[in-house]
Amino acid sequence: MDAARAVALLEAAKGALVFVAGLGALSFVHHDAQRFAEQLVGHLHLNPASAYPRIFLDFSARLTDARMAGLAGLAAIYAAVRLVEAYGLWRGRRWAEWFAAVSGGIYIPFETYELFHGVAWLSLAALLINVAVVGLMINVLLRSHSTESE
Fold first, then answer.
1. DSSP character for 45?
2. Average pLDDT of 100-126?
3. pLDDT at 19
4. Inter-residue contact 8 to 136 (CB < 8 Å)
5. CA angle, corner 147, sides to 144 and 150, nearest 5?
6. Distances (CA, A) of 45 to 33, 51, 57, 61, 92
7. CA-CA-CA-CA torsion for 3, 86, 12, 68, nearest 10 degrees?
8. 83, 12 in Cβ contact below 8 A?
């Protein structure tokens, strides 16, 4: 499998995951998200007074139906962009190669900034994945440019 198709699979997986998360957000419209969050924290035996569970519980307390629908809409837009990108990469479209390189590169400064404020494994993994995607896509672009000029 070539690099562009590997990135296409990654982007399709990201799009599908965000789409499913958006459906999950949409399923909370007209439901009590705060009660669900409290039950989840209790089920996982987390201390509701500690930092991360508290952030999660406070966030769920501020959710309204309009915010949940808005989050679901944003998730659908993000998923659509990622799936279109994946389709373009799979089909070898030059615009998708450029889009993948640029969209992966946009996140690198933010992820690097996050690492300077404390190493989090998720931030480090995201940084490494995006650096790999950008590197692969630059390589694909350079190879396709050299074959076009021959």
1. T
2. 89
3. 96
4. no
5. 150
6. 18, 14, 14, 19, 48
7. 140
8. yes
